[in-house]
Each structure stands twice: as C-alpha cells, then as structure tokens.
Design goal:
The complex is a heterodimer of chains A (451) and B (387). Chain A is mostly beta strands and 451 residues long. Chain A has 3 helices and 27 strands. The radius of gyration of chain A is 31 Å and the shape is elongated. Chain B folds into 3 domains: 3-122, Immunoglobulin-like, CATH 2.60.40; 126-192; 277-382, Immunoglobulin-like (Sandwich). Helix content of chain B is 1%, strand content 59%. Chain B has 1 helix and 25 strands. Chain B starts with a strand and ends in a 5-residue tail after the last strand. Classes of the chains: A mainly beta (451), B mainly beta (387). Chains A and B meet through β10, β14, β18, β19 and β21 of A and β4, β6 and β23 of B. β14 of chain A pairs antiparallel with β6 (90-96) of chain B, so a sheet runs across the interface.
C-alpha cells in the first residue's frame, strides 16, 4: 500500500464547547482529530465542480458541542458546506457560524442530549478536480476488428490531497449560476457588494437541491478493497441518474494534489467495425475521410454502457509485431445504440473528383422590358471515386447541390435526400477500381426559382 | 541533458518517503527500439524493456528530459503475461506527477518475475521528407526511378541501434542521432516506364500569335503494377530528372514537385518548355449571334461563335503528338473541327482537350510541315459581361 504522508489541508476539529454562552468565547479546546472514515468524490466534467463527501465518526458530549472545519489553500465553496448528522438520536444542529476575522473556517454548533458517538457526513463543492476519458484502439492489420481499452483520468488541482477516495464521475451538462472557483476565492464574508436579484438566488438554491437530490439517489457505495489489493483493471459501475450518467470507479484511489491519475478499464476485445470512407464537404472538407464505423451495440461487443466523450487513439497492427499509429480523434458522448464514427483523416487511398461536364441554359424568361429575369440551367455532373485499396470500401458520399433544382437523371439512383440541398449515396467501390456517378440536374434561377 | 528513463521501484520502499518522489531504482536497458514512420505525420517510438517485478503492486517510473513527448500518447503494453487472468500481469493505474515530464505506472504481478514491457509514444522532432531522382534513358521511354526519404532528427533524443520502420520497406537497423539527418533509398525501379508528353495550356484571352504559345515537356508516370509500383502512395516531394547525354554521361533535365500519387493514379512532372514544336494560336473570329435586346436596346442575351486557328510545326525528326488544354466557358459545343488528325476529350465544361498528331520533319525538307487546325465552338445563352 503506497502511503502518501502529506498532511491534509482540511481539518475537522471537534470541540466540546463547555463555555459556549457567548460567541466571543475563546476558541474551543481540541478534543479529537478524527480520521476520515470514508471520502467520496463525484467529479463533473461539464463544469469545474466536484461534490466531496467525507464521513467521520465523532464523539459528542452531553450539552453544546462545536465542530470546526477549516480549508485553507483549497478551492472549496464555503456556501456549499453541509454537515449531515445522519440518523443519530438526540443530536440537534443549532446553527453554523463563519467566525469573524478568519477565512476558510466554519463552526457547527450541535446540541447533544447525552454522550454519544455518531457518524456524520460533511459535503461540499470544490473546484480544481477534473476528469476525462480516452480510449486506446488497436485494430488488426486487415482493419476488420479492434480491441478497445477505455481509460479514465482524474486530475487534482484542488489544493487538497484525497487519499483512499472513492471516485465517481458524472457525464452530463449541469447548470451552475456561479463558478465554484469564484465562490471559493470570494469566501463567505467577502460578498462583492452587489445584491444578487431574487431570481438568481432562487435559481442557485433550486440547482443545488437538484444536485443534492441526484446525489442522494445513489446508493452508498460498498466498501471496496483498496487499490493496492486490487489486481484487476478497475471495474466501472455505471448508472443513469436523471439525464446524467454516473460512473463509479471500483476501489479506492489516492489522488494527491497536483497529480493526475489514469485508470484503465477492462479491455473490450474483438469489436467488429467497418472501414469506410466519407465525403462530406460541410463536415470534413473537400478530401475523402477514412472512418472506422461501429455502433455501441452488442453486435459490436459493446452496448453495455454509454461511452463518455473523449479522445480515441487509433493504432493498427503493422504486420511486424508492432503498432502503426493511425491518428487520434475526439468523439462526443456515445449513448447506447449510437453510431461511432472515428475520423482518421485522408489516407490518400480513396480519390474523389467532382466535375461539371456540361451546363446548358433554357426556359429563359424576360420581363416587359426584355431583360432576362429567369432561366433554367441543365447541369451534367460527374462524381468519380477511385479506390486504390486492395479491398472494396464502402463510401458515404454526401453531395451539396445549391438552389432550386430537380434531379432529372442519375446513373445511380440509389441516392437519398438529406435536405433540400443535399443528397447522399451509400456506395461500395470495388477493389482497385473506380466508380463514376453521372447525374443531370435542372437548376431554376431568378424568377424560375421557387425556393 | 537527454534522458528517457524507465525505472522500477519496489512499492514498499516508497511508503516511508516524503513528498519528493523517489525514482530510478533500476534502469533496465532498452532491448529494442522501433521508430515507426509509417504514418508520414508522426513518429511512433516503441521500446521494449525487461522489468523485474515483485509479487504485488510495483511502481514503474517513466520520465524524459529535453525531448517533447505527447504525454497522453504514452502507451504501456505487457508482452510476457498480458490479459486479465489471475496469472496475468496487470496495469492498475497511471499517475501523472505534477510539473514533471514523467509518469508512473502501477503494475500488479501475482509473483516475482520478469515482464517484458513495450512503451510506445509519439515523439516530436522526427520528420521525413521524400524526394525523387529519375534518370531516364536516351529514348525517353523508361528510367531509373529512385525514391528517397530524408529523415531528420531534431527531437533531442539519440536513436541508437534503432529499427527504422518505413512503409513498404523492410526494417532498417540504423542509428539516428539527435541533430542528424539520414537519407534512405525507399523505393527503386530501374526500368520505370513513362510517357513523354507535350502539353500546351493557353489562356482564354491571351493570344500570342506569331510569338507562339508555351509548350511544356511533361513526364507522366503511373503508380501501378504495370510500372512495378502501385503498392503505396508516392508522397509529395521534389523530383530531379536527369537524361542520358549520349556521351556516357548525364544531363540535368529539370525538376518539379510530384504531387501525392495514390496507387493506380498517374503523376506528372514538368521539366521545362519545348522549342522544337511551335504552336501559333489565333482568334480567327468571334462574334455574337441571336442577340436579344431590352426595350431600351441593351443587350439581354446572345450566343457566341468562336473560331480558333492553330498552326503547329514539328521540327523533330520523329512524329509526335501535341496535347492542348483549351479553356472553355458557358454552354458550349464544338460546331466544327477541321484540318489534321485530332482527337478530342471533354472531362469538364471548363476545358476541351485536343490531341494533334504531328508528322516528323522530313530529311532534307526546307521547313517543317505545318498542320493547321480550325476549331469552331458555339456558346449559347450568354449574358452580357460573362465572357
């Protein structure tokens, strides 16, 4: 077990406040400094937001008790601090005080009916923790199947070391009214003087409630073996909560301030995919783009969980017991059943050429003064695809025809209409050969145009 | 200081150490370093090392100095005991320490043993630049075609005893020190056939008349099996061409950039201009027909009849062919084409391709035989200002 004996910057201090009649009473005696029993981090990636939950067992004396919690040099939002006394009987939260002349300190006043030891939970929002996912893909040399190794990387720049923390990461766009880092910087006493209007206040409250509710809906994680005892790639337990996806990394991690930690997930083998090329000037520019196409379904050995947004690093077997780097590409969040398209750029092995072979004008319309105000253009266009690979390749050819037009003839009529200016062919270009689509389109111009 | 180091660290030893990280307990030698340059835009380095592991969790430190490695690209593979069985070696986590060009792997081994690992990463500063030499025979039908790759290493890392892996080449065991460049012969075909072409690309407006149009000398190679190539794209690069001067020596014919040429495609390089073929091109006649006017006598729409005359002379003692890429505009068609032996090809509405056969200059003849071609095209429904 690797120990990182850095002192925690977050201190929870329990004091029996025997002389608590006056708030000006001298600082309480330090009775115990309980260790965290459990730390849980829920890291959001759409905002700089982490919900931290620490559980500790505290001993309370009959009468008034104070719990002091300080967080110097961290990025904690003081407005978010909550102490949950759980189900312990005879404990009453009296209030919480942010003492004058000191920043980054809160004191909870708790009334106990008798001496009792109880587990409590402290939750707060902190900034500076982020997570991201990426994927290492290794395709066979024939480019028919691949192995995928997902990885989740957590980076900690929060100012606080988290040892033995259970980690959960959330996929989804969450709304925040104010940035946590800004709230942490401002502190509780340093309001900027501007009165926030009621709407903003209400929004903020309702939003923090939403987050809290969502979080509470999750069952408490079972105690898991610590990392050093784990001999597997971390299992990721995934769950949908409302519109968010929550991924819990099995086991506990030490995530020290300043460090990043990447956790490999179990690799998925033998994922079948289609090598295809796509031509879509609006999406990829003028050149054909090589695409690995698969689906997040069980047919492709996937389909168990949505895949978080991330970078895909793609390699192929180079046939010499090594790897060939094909490229890397970013992919947005992939829901179950969704198509996965990995854009690997133009490899030069599919050539595309578009040429207008003929353009004729007809149906000229004149106004009362004899000026041309409308006409038709009959245009003959050739789309040529040349495949240099020694295998047939599927090609998705998306083609834009501007204006008000009607296709009057096409050598390949299997096109589909995407929108009023876009058609698409799904073709297969045979190995080492070319395919030419020739179409004739009538484009109505000026007063002839109806759209 | 340049260093790429991998170190193992018995985990227990680190338990009592203060925040500064302990590194470099052992530094196993690289067993094998492969520099994969198959992707022309990236250098992927893969190095293999034998790492002694203790039973339990081990920490391996990988750090670098003075080189630029894409940290997120660093990939660790276990080669001896891969998989997810109980007996497998497994990667548990990768740590990225703050402000360091380094990472640490935590690796679990069920027993004390040696594991061969492969570490791969993208290293900046290694580039490849293709170039070509083409030495053609006296008859200009085939030549010795050589493709070179100039490897440049400004990465800061010395690649000693490396295996260089380029697409289409067997592995090469070569060193590439930092600061060093190395030129490698990547492809050679001693008898690459090619086609010699004479090509004119006149402009729509510019008629040089008596001065004659510029005619380019072009060599066209096909990247296909018939040419002994066709397996890989010929990457864009400068080609220098040399000819046989007939005296057992060679002469520099010119140079040009060969564009990316995929398998089955042809690539053209222009060597220079041709003096032994003369083409004079005249706008013999161009006039408007079928004019339609607005009520205030402004031109509204019309047709155009355009007549071009080409006078071509071949001063060579061999028959040859001249290719003309004649620019075109609008809704045009050829009305007539007379004189000489010509072929036409229309690949796009912007151009009419004409091929004109030219007879050889007869021995003893006072002058070359002049071939005169008349081309008439009609352009329909032109709006004012369009031509």
């Amino acid at each position: 077990m690797l120990a990182f004996p850095l002192p925690s910057r977050i201190l929870a201090v329990l004091g029996a406040a025997i002389l608590c009649a006056s708030p000006a009473a001298a600082k309480i005696d330090l009775v115990t400094l309980p260790e965290r029993d459990r730390t849980e981090l829920t890291i959001y990636n759409s905002q700089d937001l982490t919900l931290a939950r620490e559980s500790r067992t505290l001993s309370f004396s009959k009468g008034a008790n104070q719990i002091q919690f300080s967080w110097a040099n961290t990025l904690i939002d003081p407005t978010s601090l909550q102490l949950d006394l759980g189900t312990a009987k005879g404990l009453t939260m009296v209030d919480a005080v942010y003492p004058a002349n000191t920043q980054e300190l809160i004191v909870w006043n708790i009334e106990a009916q008798e001496d009792v030891s109880a587990p409590v939970t402290i939750t707060y929002f902190t900034s500076g923790l982020t997570w991201s996912s990426d994927y290492v893909l290794k395709a066979n040399s024939a480019e028919t199947a691949l192995q995928m190794q997902p990885r989740i990387t957590v980076r900690n720049n929060s100012g606080e070391d988290f040892s033995n923390a259970e980690t959960r990461v959330v996929v989804g766009e969450i709304n925040l009214v104010e940035m946590i880092a800004e709230l942490a910087r401002r502190g509780i006493a340093k309001d900027d003087g501007r009165l926030r209007d009621e709407v903003v206040k209400w929004k903020m409250m309702s939003k923090s409630e939403t987050i809290a509710e969502m979080d509470m809906a999750m069952p408490m994680a079972q105690a898991a073996p610590s990392m050093a005892g784990r001999a597997q790639a971390a299992e990721i337990i995934k769950k949908a909560v409302s519109e968010y996806q929550l991924y819990r990394v099995e086991g506990k991690e030490d995530i020290l301030n300043g460090w990043g930690k990447q956790l490999p997930m179990p690799a998925v083998k033998d994922i079948k995919f289609d090598l295809s090329y796509e031509i879509d000037p609006n999406r990829y520019g003028p050149e054909p783009t090589k695409i690995y196409r698969l689906k997040n379904t069980t047919d492709h050995n996937l389909g168990k969980d949505p895949l978080p947004e991330g970078q895909f690093y793609v390699y192929t077997d180079d046939g010499r017991a090594g790897l060939r780097y094909e490229g890397s590409t970013h992919h947005k969040y992939i829901p179950l059943g969704e198509d996965i398209e990995l854009n690997l750029g133009n490899d030069g092995l599919l050539q595309f050429e578009e040429r207008t072979v003929r353009s004729q004008r007809s149906e000229l319309q004149f106004d009362n003064y004899g000026s041309v105000v409308g006409w038709d253009e009959t245009r003959t266009v050739e789309l040529e695809l040349r495949n240099a690979r020694e295998r047939a390749v599927p090609v998705k050819l998306t083609h834009v025809i501007p204006g008000d037009w009607t296709m009057s003839d096409a050598s390949d009529k299997t096109y589909e209409s995407v929108d009023q200016q876009t058609v698409r062919w799904n073709l297969s270009v045979p190995a080492s050969s070319k395919t030419v689509i020739r179409y004739v389109v009538v484009v109505r111009n000026g007063s002839r145009a109806k759209r | 200081m340049r260093l790429i180091a991998a170190s193992t660290l018995a985990l227990l030893a680190a338990a009592s150490i203060a925040p500064a990280r302990t590194k470099l307990v052992t530094l196993p030698e690289r067993n094998d370093l492969v520099v994969s340059l198959e992707n022309p835009n990236a250098a992927l380095l893969s190095e293999e090392r034998d790492i002694p592991l203790q039973a339990g969790t081990n920490s391996i430190d990988f750090s670098w100095k003075g080189v630029s490695i894409d940290q997120s690209s660093v990939l660790l593979e276990l080669l001896t005991h891969p998989g997810e069985e109980k007996t497998s070696t497994r990667i548990i986590a990768t740590g990225y320490p703050p402000d360091e060009a380094a990472l640490t792997w935590q690796i679990y081994s069920p027993e004390a043993r040696t594991e061969r690992i492969r570490v791969s990463y993208l290293l900046s500063g290694i580039s490849q630049q293709p170039s070509y030499e083409f030495r053609v025979n006296a008859t200009e039908t085939a030549g010795d075609f050589q493709q070179y790759t100039l490897l440049r290493n400004v990465s800061g890392e010395d690649l000693r005893g490396a295996t260089l892996r380029l697409r289409g080449l067997p592995d090469l065991d070569r060193s590439l020190e930092s600061g060093e460049s190395r030129r490698l012969l990547a492809l050679r075909n001693k008898e690459l056939p090619f086609e010699k072409l004479y090509i004119a690309r006149p402009s729509w407006q510019g008629f040089l008349g008596e001065s004659g149009e510029s005619i380019s000398l072009v060599y066209e190679v096909r990247n296909d099996a018939a040419s002994g190539l066709g397996k890989f794209t010929l990457p864009v690069g400068k080609m220098r061409l040399y000819g046989d001067d007939g005296d057992g020596s060679s002469i520099f014919l010119g140079e040009d950039i060969l564009a990316d040429t995929a398998p089955q495609e042809e690539g053209q390089v222009t060597l220079g201009t041709v003096k032994d073929i003369v083409m004079r091109r005249y706008l013999a006649d161009q006039k408007r027909l079928n004019e339609r006017f607005t009520t205030n006598r402004q031109l509204s729409v019309f047709d155009v009849r355009r007549e071009l005359r080409y006078e071509v002379e071949n001063f060579k003692d061999k028959p040859t062919t001249l290719r003309i890429h004649e620019p075109m505009m609008g809704d045009w068609e050829v009305t007539s084409l007379t004189g000489g032996t010509t072929r036409t090809k229309i690949e796009s509405m912007n151009e009419l391709e004409l091929e004109i056969d030219l007879p050889a200059q007869q021995k003893g003849a006072k002058e070359a035989e002049k071939v005169t071609i008349n081309l008439v095209v009609t352009i329909r429904n032109v709006f004012p200002g369009e031509l």
